[in-house]
Design a protein that fits this description.
By secondary structure, the chain is mainly beta. It has one domain. Helix content is about 10%, strand content about 55%. The protein has a 15-stranded antiparallel beta sheet that branches. The chain is globular and about 55 Å long.
Length: about 240
């Protein structure tokens, strides 16, 4: 059986435009929330609440729900000028999967962008899980992604509140960066998932990215389900004794 999850979201620089080092925050009300942090000579951060309703998402686990930033966010960074978040997109599915993209323009000097997806709480948890991920980054003409926040990488996918599944796409990136983490097993149980972008773009430059993080597994029965399974087994034993 594929897993189901219930999510809480925090920051995005989108599903969260968020500083990669932010602490997870529960979704605002029942909606997917997003945080962002952008830094140059100054720093600006904020929270975006999308119209994606967790109740609707979890009630329809095989349906993908998507949200796109309706308009550009201009961010005054003081001496280095204004940076822009031109696009943010998120697709989520409760048979779980996070697709998260961004498009950003730096200020006059090198500009750091940090984005994080909503923290998705897996309830019930999964076992025998298999996960896969991919990420791509495309700098604009004459632009470059100077550095990444995860060693030399610009993307990080996590499960269970901070355990790294994969870091992808090494910086610097001058033309096109793409990397895949093929399907592999996750030991133990999976109770949450989240993704992060963290990258610095050259001054006056631009960059866009997209990613996918999917985890499949067996749903761990809740206590009531375990009791019912036990009663079913007992009835079967009695039937064989008759």
């Amino acid at each position: 059986m594929k897993r189901r999850w219930i999510g809480g979201a925090w920051g995005i620089g989108l599903i969260l435009l968020t500083a990669v080092l932010f602490s997870p925050v529960v979704a605002t009300g029942q909606y997917v929330a997003i945080d962002y942090m952008v830094s140059g000579s100054g720093t600006q951060s904020g929270t975006i609440v999308t119209d994606l309703d967790w109740d609707v998402i979890t009630a329809n686990p095989h349906t993908t729900y998507a949200w796109n930033l309706p308009s550009t966010i201009a961010i005054d960074l003081g001496g280095t000028g204004t940076a822009h978040i031109d696009g943010l997109s998120i697709g989520v599915k409760a048979d779980p999967f996070i697709d998260f993209g961004f498009s950003a323009r730096s200020a006059n000097g090198p500009t750091h962008f940090a984005f994080s997806s909503a923290l998705l709480i897996v309830n019930p948890a999964l076992t025998n899980a298999q996960a896969s991920a991919w990420a791509q980054v495309i700098p604009g003409i004459g632009s470059s992604v100077v550095s990444g926040d995860f060693g030399s990488k610009v993307y990080n996918s996590e499960y269970n509140g901070g355990t790294t599944f994969a870091t992808l796409v090494s910086a610097p990136v001058y033309g096109y960066g793409y990397e895949v983490a093929p399907s592999q097993s996750i030991p133990g149980q999976v109770s949450s998932m989240q993704v992060h972008w963290g990258l610095t773009v050259s001054g006056g430059g631009q960059a866009s990215g997209n990613s996918d993080f999917t985890i499949l597994g067996d749903v761990i029965p809740e206590p009531a389900s375990v009791i019912l399974l036990g009663l079913g087994s007992l009835a079967l034993i009695r039937k064989h004794k008759v």
